[in-house]
Amino acid sequence: MKAIWNNKTVAEAPKEDLIYIEGNWYFPPASVKTEFLEKSDTPYTCPWKGVCQYFNVVQGDKTSKDSAWSYPEPKPSAIDAVKKDFSNYVAFWQDVQVQE
Question: Measuring CA to CA, which of 22, 83, 84, 93 is 20 to 30 A from 77?
Answer without folding.
Answer: 93
